[in-house]
Design a protein that fits this description.
The protein has about 150 residues and is α+β, with helices and mostly antiparallel strands. The chain contains 5 helices and 6 strands. A 6-stranded mixed beta sheet has the order 2-1-6-5-4-3. This is SnoaL-like protein.
């Protein structure tokens, strides 16, 4: 129970999530009971690789690289979309490249906890955001992304 409370507290500190506490408790218990702790070095490397992959201009190469860092049941949700497969997410990244040509994702900061990482980033001068990454077996399983459009 202590692990559950610690992780839940950390998740609540990460941002003002509007997910009901009961759901967070259930998700946290699943995360801590069923998954070995992913080493910080592995999480850091995967987060850096995530942003490198987003910057790959070739859709085919990007999709291939996604398979190396995301789990088979990968899921991402952000301010504008939700995707349940690497292929769908890759299509969204293609649209980002079209909308913001020549701009690259830049990682600003990474912080890690047990099987959780938080990263702040920017996309040129157009966007900035904060991502929460969840890990299992050394791979990214989920990303929750908070995106802000710069005016």
């Amino acid at each position: 129970m202590k692990k559950t409370q610690t992780l839940l507290g950390a998740v609540l500190i990460l941002g003002s999530l509007t997910i009901p506490t009961a759901h967070l408790n259930a998700q946290t218990q699943i995360q801590t009971k069923n998954a070995a702790v992913t080493p910080v070095s592995v999480m850091d490397k995967a987060v850096y690789k995530h942003f490198e992959v987003l910057n790959i201009s070739s859709s085919e190469r990007r999709l291939s690289e996604m398979g190396k860092i995301y789990s088979s049941d990968f899921h991402i949700v952000d301010t504008f979309f939700e995707h349940f497969t690497c292929k769908d997410f890759n299509n969204a990244v293609n649209e980002i490249h079209k909308k913001f040509p020549g701009q690259n994702f830049t990682l600003v900061e990474v912080k890690t906890l047990n099987n959780v990482a938080r990263a702040t980033w920017k996309l040129g001068d157009a966007l900035n955001g904060e991502n929460i990454f969840l890990f299992k077996d050394g791979k990214i399983t989920d990303i929750i992304a908070f995106v802000s459009v710069n005016k």
